[in-house]
Amino acid sequence: MSVLVQPVPEVNPLQDALRFERRVPPCAIVIFGASGDLSKRKLLPALYRLFYERRIPPNFAVVGSSRTPLSDDEFRERMKDSVKKFLEDAPFDEDIWTSFAQSLFYVPGDLNNPASYDDIRNKLDEIEKAHQTAGNVLFYLSTQPSYYAEAVLALGEHGLNRGNGWRRVIIEKPFGHDLQSARKLNDEIHKVFDESAVYRIDHYLGKETVQNILAFRFGNGIFEPLWNRRYIDHVQITAAESIGVEGRGGYYQEAGALRDMIQNHLSQVMATIAMEPPTVFDANNVRDERAKLLRAVRIMKPEDVEKFAVAGQYGPAKVGGQDVPGFRQEQSVDPDSQTDTYAAVTFYIDNWRWADIPFYIRTGKRLPKRVTDIAIQFQAPPLGLFKQETKGGLREVRPNLLVLRIQPEEGISLRFLSKSPGSGMRVRPVSMDFNYGSSFGERTPTAYETLLLDAMAGDPTLYTRQDMVEASWQIVQPILDVWAHSKFDFPNYPAGSWGPKASDEMLARQGHVWRIP
Amino acid sequence: MSSAVIFPAQPEQILKGLGKLWTSLGQEEKQQGKPTVLRACAMTLIVATDDPDGGFAASQTISELMREHPSRGIVLAVSEQAEHGLEARVLAQCWKPFGKAQQICCEQIEITARPDSWPNVGPTLVGLIAADLPVIFWCRHSAALNASATKEQKAGLEAVLSLATKTIIDSKGEDPGRTFELLTKWRNRGRVTADLEWTRLTQWREPIANIFDNPCRENKFSSFHKIEVVHGGDRPGACALYAGGWLSAPYKAEVTFTKAPGEDSGLARITLRSDSEQIDFERKGECMTLRSTNGRERKYSYKDASVDALMTEELAVLGQDAAFDAAFARAQELWNG
Fold first, then answer.
1. From B94, which residue of chain A is nearest by alpha-carbon distance?
2. Which positions in chain A touch B214 (Cβ < 8 Å)?
3. Rounded to a whole number, what is the distance in Å from the CA of A13 to chain B's nearest CA?
4. How far apart are the first and last CA of chain A?
5. Less crowded by CB within 10 Å, the N or C end of chain A?
6. Dist. CA B88–CA A333, nearest whole Å
7. Catalytic residue at A485?
8. Digit-coded pLDDT (tens) for A39-95
9. How many other C-beta atoms are found inside a 10 Å radius of the C-beta of residue B319?
């Protein structure tokens, strides 16, 4: 009997994990929708930055594709302008750009036209030989969501889903517009790509501070024992934006705050905060725990929606001495629009750790400031021994509060009480602060840098999996269904305020108040 | 903000001085009614120096390092100028991140010792080390590292060395033979050591290593049996020897050292040769070019790393450094011929 022995690939003895950045295999990245805003503002600046920092391998290439007819050189020129304009906290270097641009290519084409896919395949074949990309290809769908299924199916029909190396696809949000459409889209994609090759991007999960939640919870021994219903009273997650729809009125009108933020970003943040510790820190285990948590979220009954969810829409107001239009006055917005520009929801997680603990999530546009944070409100001490010193006199002590700030001042602070100096036992709250940016002075990578690198390296930990997407649609679907048949008395909050009164009332019913971040 | 001179430089007195310093920083906080100062410490960083500036440059570097490696910094300036045998001063190094209201502050202790008092500094330092955190010793005292160091200098060096979790030197411009002798002595005693000349190589090592990650690459690293290191200066310095050592350690490739034309010091080029391919990494100004006879050319940005940047990297590696250990052993062999 003869045994076929595969040659063992030579291990690179020069690698030094202690000092070098993580290694990424050679590959080509095909960006569909390459002339769009996302490519210009985020993707190309992120790739250039990764190249500048030598974090992507020498053997890589980017193939841009969209309907705009451009040559390789024209594409490079356009991208150069964009990178110069949108590069965050980083210098632009002409020589490095020239070297980077050698790896940029463009294939004009229409996603509906089969010939476009043949052109892309031919280009990839050329690149594989010239740039030694090992046949690895990452497809990035930065197109309109309605084209996702069509594009993926066409990739399959033209054999682009297989080759000499791995093939992966990154899909931008929104992943479906409801549970049914998300399931349908998953089915279509799975006809062409295995789930392990599908990278659904949620840029919130790529933020350093969201990743830091995992390090904070599972890297320290002191918090996890308190991380449950015995010690935590409730959790507030806030994602506030001070701006309006900024010319995206048409898109936003179809989406709304609940779909745009809570279904994806904030439900994933909630899952990160509340999930069980994974047994091993790897993609599957982390995602299993996130998915398990989302599946444990109590699904609202239609009759409960009014009690546990609040929709809002901003109206015109004067902010900072300037007139700010209401949502209905924004460009491309229906003057009778029923779209929610604010959404607040109370979720309950029906598992051993969190039973009956409310998780309040709110998001909105035209709120007083841009801030995203998570506040863990601990229970008050069982006995009120001390009074707290405030400007208005003495009052009962405020419980401990742990705030995980995601933006703009990333960090963690813990509020606790300390004795005021002097005689008498009066206490006042003090804050123990960890500031992420200042404690690690180096520039933190943007979410897109992190996520692109992860996809190239084959690490899907920060990407959402099919079951996570479907579970997060499942928890918002009853709200969407009820709201779709409701007639709201909009606008119900003025621009520049913290949202509608009904939102405060939702918390008041549980004896809680929204904190002011 | 700094204190008056503390003499005698006893740990209790110095720590009391630090306590007062934080209280006065807290006053501002009380007036403003919000947190204004954040105290940070992740290690004790002791810097011994014989710089004629009395430790000013070392102090500046600590203040730069605190952004990524906040520490209790102890600058030990050995100088004939010290009025008392051993005296101290405490200060806070603070910086305010752009757009933030809160200052981040690290405490720093400056100890000035007359050369004859240096050997007695050990008990003072023991009392000043931040508890439960690593102690890094960065020796900038070039005379003490020299073969002709005095008895006091050797004893002073030993006093600090015995406290350190890791000891860092910079052998740039020094005789590599002496550097290897010193580091070997310390390493044989189980000390973790580092040389910033090795740290300077990271900018070269990373792109070189990365090209051999490609599974499609025809010529694997093991097929490159000749290495040429082109260096400034008349003789290869530690940096060039480490480069040769690192590249030849895995397969014992043949290494040659060539003097670069011109006056520029440091590495100028590294060439790897196999039977069918030659790869050059060449540095010119702020650009490094990778050129292969089998492939295309690629340019990288290259900037001479400042001492601050080198220390930032080195402070992130607190345990054993296997790559350095292997390169060091082979560099010694190359040096000894």
1. A438
2. 25-26, 57-59, 132, 134
3. 7
4. 72
5. N
6. 69
7. no
8. 998 999 999 999 888 888 878 999 999 999 999 999 999 999 999 988 876 778 888
9. 10
Q: Answer yes or no: do A59 and B246 touch at CB < 8 A.
A: no
ipTM surpasses 0.95: no
Tokens of A265: 């970003």
**Residue partners of A248: CB distance under 8 A and separation at least 6:** none
Q: How far is A484 from chain B (nearest CA, A)?
A: 43
pLDDT band at A246 (very low <50, low <70, confident <90, very high): confident
* Contact yes or no for A99 and B299 at CB 8 A: yes
List, as one string, the DSSP characters of B228-275: EEEESSSS--HHHHHHHHHHHTTT--EEEEEEPSSS--SEEEEEEE-S
Please state, in angstroms and rounded to a whole number, the distance separating the CA atoms of residues A33 and B172.
Answer: 51
B156: helix, coil or strand?
A: helix
Interface test with B, best of A8, A11, A19 (most B CBs within 10 A): A19
Q: Which of B38, B299, B313 sits opposite A435 (nearest CB)?
A: B38
Q: Which percentage of chain B shows pLDDT scores above 90?
A: 39
Helices (H), B114-218: 122-128, 142-145, 151-161, 176-188, 196-199, 202-211
Q: Tell me the pLDDT tens digit for each residue of A260-312.
A: 899 999 999 999 999 999 998 888 899 999 999 999 999 999 999 999 999 99
pLDDT score recorded for residue A58: 79
Judged by phi (left if over 0) then psi (alpha if -120 to 50, else beta), residue A332 lies in: left
Distance of alpha carbon A116 from alpha carbon A123, whole angstroms: 11
Q: Which two tokens stand for residue A146?
A: 């309605």
Instruction: Indicate which of B195, B300, B313 best probes the interface with A, i.e. most A CBs within 10 Å of its own CB.
Output: B300
Q: What is the pTM of this model?
A: 0.77
The predicted model gives B249-270 an average pLDDT of 88
Of the candidates A494, A496, A497, A502, the one whose C-alpha atom is nearest the C-alpha of residue A315 is A494
SS3 A515: coil
Which of the four pLDDT bands, split at 50, 70 and 90, describes residue A1?
Answer: very low
Chain A residues whose C-beta is within 8 A of a chain B C-beta are: 9-10, 12-16, 18-21, 23, 25-26, 52, 54, 57-59, 93, 95-96, 98-99, 102, 132-134, 409, 430-431, 433, 435, 437-442
- Nearest chain A residue (CA) to B324: A16
